[in-house]
Amino acid sequence: MSEKILIVLHLLVSYIVECFSHLSRYLRSKKPTNYQKKKKKMDQSDKLSNLPTGVTQKILSYLPIDQAVRTSILSSEWRSTWSRLPYLVFDDQSGYDIKKVVNHVLLLHRGGIETFKLSNLDGSADSENIDKWIAYLSRERIKEFVLEHTKWDPYNVFSCIFLYKGLTRLELHNCLLNPPATFKGFRMLKRLHLKHVDVSGDVLGRLIACCPQLERVILCDLKGIADVTICAPSIQFLKVQGSFEDVVLEKTFNLVDVSIDWKQGSTICSGKLLRHILQLPRIERLTLQRSFLECAVGSLTKKLPKSCLSLKFLSISIRLDNSEEILTAMHLMRSAPALEELDIVFRKGKVTNDGESTYCLSDDKQNWEFTQLQRVKVICFSGIKAEVDFIKFLLLTSPGLQELEISFGQDMKGVDFSWLDDNQKNSAFTQVRVVKVTRLSGVKAEVDFIRFLLSNTSQRLERVILQPSSTEVSWELFKLLLAFKRDTLHADFKFLDPSSPVTPVQDSDDSSSDHNFDAASSSDSDFDDDDDDELL
Amino acid sequence: MSTPAENEASIKQESGPSGTVQDKPKKIVVRTGDGEVFELKEEVAMEMETIKTFFMEDNISYETVMPLTNVDSWELVKVIEYCSKYVELKNKENFHKELKAFQDEFVKSMSPKTLLSLSNVANYLEIKYFLDFICQAIADHIKSKDVEYVRELFGVENDFTEEEYEMAKTEAPWAHENLDKDLY
Description:
Chain A is α/β, with parallel strands linked by helices. Helices cover 29% and strands 20% of the residues of chain A. In chain A, helix 14 (444-455) runs parallel beside helix 15. Mean pLDDT of chain A is 81; it is low at 38-47 and 502-536. Helix content of chain B is 49%, strand content 8%. Chain B has eight helices and three strands. Chain B has helices spanning 42-45, 49-57, 73-89, 95-108, 112-125, 128-142, 147-154, 162-171, and strands at residues 27-32, 37-41, 66-68. Chain B has a three-stranded mixed sheet. Chain B is elongated, with a radius of gyration of 21 Å. The A-B interface holds A 41, 44-45, 47-49, 51-52, 54-56, 58-64, 66-67, 69-79, 95-97, 100-101, 104, 108, 499-501, 517, 527 and B 94-97, 113, 116-117, 119-120, 123, 131-132, 135-136, 138-140, 142-144, 147, 150-151, 153-160, 164-165, 168-169, 171-172, 174-176, 178.
C-alpha cells in the first residue's frame, strides 16, 4: 500500500515539476530576458547611440555652454563628453552667472581648448577673474582668443596672454594693451582685431611688425593713438576706422582688400596713403568711407606713376557739394582702368538742387570711358539733381554696364522729381540689363524716379528688382509701374521682400569666422568682409 | 534622381578621370546599404568627400558602382536633395537668404531621430556644410529639453545610481535651471 502511495507521490511530483518547467519555458518565451532586452534596444538604436564622437561634439558645440554642460547628467559616459569641447564661448548676457560657469568649465575641462570667446558686456566678470582665466589658458594650446569687455571699464589685458605661442586669432574690445618690452610677437598670429583698445602707436606698430604671418588686421576706434605704421608682408586684408591722423603702410605687398573709414585726417597723410594704396601690386578691393575722400582731395591731380591695374572693386563716400571731391573721385576711378564694380555712397552736404558742383562732370573733355565697369550701386540716394547728374554721368561713360542698383536714403516724401521730365530722353542707359531699386518707402517720388530710369533703358533690360525698406510699405503705387511695363518693356519684374541681404551700411565692422570644428585651423567663412560685426 | 539600374554593365558611361572629353554630363553610380542603386550627377557627387576620394585617388573609372554600405536609400535621397540645392544656389546672388529658406523647409517635417541618422550619414560621406547644418538643427532641437528626452533621442541608457545622478547634478546646478518640461 505504502509503495503505491510512494509511486503516486513520485508521479505527482514529477508531473508538477514538468508543469513548472513548461510554465517557466512558456513565460521565458513571452518576456524577453534583460539581456535580450538590452541587445534588441542596442540593435535598434545602434546607429544613433553610437554616433561618432566628432558628431556628438559638433552638436554640443552648437549649444550654449550651459546646455552643453547639462549633458553631463545623461549617463556616466556622457558625464565628461562636454569637457573635451575645444571651442568654448561664454556670454554674460545669456542668463547664467558667468563667473561660476567659466570657473566650473575650466576646472573640469579635460584639456584641448582651442578657442576661448568671452563676452563680458555687462561687466559681470571682473578683471581679477579674467586675469586668472587668461593665466589658466596659457597652459593650453590655445589658438583663438576673443574678449569683448564692457565699455565702462576697460580691461588691462593680463600679461600671460603674451605667452600664447600658438595664437592664430586675437580679438579685443574695450581693453588696454601693454605688451612687455621683451615680447617677441605671436609667431602664428593670422588675425588681429582691436576695437576701442587703448594702445600707443609705437607699441601697436611693433606688435604688428613682429607677427610675421598676419593676414587680416582690423583697427577700430583705437584710443591713445594718432599714427601707426603697419609693416606686415603677409597682410591681405586691412581695415582701419577711427580718428587716425596717419597710417603708414610698409612692405605690404600682398594687400588685396583695404577699407578706410576716416573721421578726420590730415590732407597730406590721406593723400599719401591713397597714392600708396593705388600703387600696391595686388590691390583688388578698396573701400573709402566717410570723410576719407574729402581729406584726400587734390592728391590725385598729379597722375600716378602707373595705373592701378588690379583694382576691381571700389567703394567711395562722396559729398556732392564739393566739386573738388568730385574731381578727386573721377581721378581715382580713372587710375583704375580695370574697375568692374563701383559703390557710391552719397553723403549729406549743404547741397542745393541746382547741380552747380557737378558742372565739372559735363564739362569734362577727356572722353574717358570706364570700359570694364559692370556694376554700379548707389547708396543713400536722396533724389537731388546733383546725384542724378552723377548717376547719368556714370552711365554715359560706362558702355559695358550691366547692372544698376539704387538704394534710397531715408525720407523721400518731400522729394519732387517733376524736373526730371525736362531732361532729354537720350536713352542714357541702353546697355543696362538689370535694374535694382531698394529701400523703397512707397512714395510717389520713387515711382517717378523708377519710371525715369526705365524710360531710358532699352530692350536689353532683362530684369527689374524692387525691394521695400520694410513690410509696412504699400505696393499700391508700384502697381503703376506694371502698367508702364506692359507698354514698353519686356523685362521681368521681381518684387523682393524686405528681409533680403541688406546693403552694406557705412559703419560696419568685419565679420568673424563662424566656428570651424576642425582641429587644424580656424578658417574664416567670410562671405563679404563688410558684413555686420559678429563676435560670438 | 533615383533610377534603379537594371544591369550595371548596361550603364553607358565614359570612363572617369582618364577618359576622353565627352558631351554627356558625367554620372556616378552608387549602391546603398539596402541594395538600391542611385545615379548621381558628377557635380553633386563630388560634394561628398568620401565619394570624391574614392574616384579621384586611384583613378577609378566612373563605371564602377561605389558601395555605400552605411547609407540607407531614404538617407541618400535626402542628402542628394540638399547637395543638389546647395550646388544650385552656390553662385547665386541671394545665396544665404535662399539657402536659409530651403533649410527651414528641409527640416520642417523631420523628426529628431531622422536628423540624427542624417548626421551620421553626413559624417560618413564627409559633407562638411551638410553636417554643420544638421548638427545645428539637432542642437536647436535639444535646447532646453529635459534629460529624459535627450536620453531617449540619443538612445543613451541611464546607468547612474540615484546617488551618482544627484552628484552629477549638483556639480553644476546652474546648468539645470530654466528647462522646458515638455516632451516631444
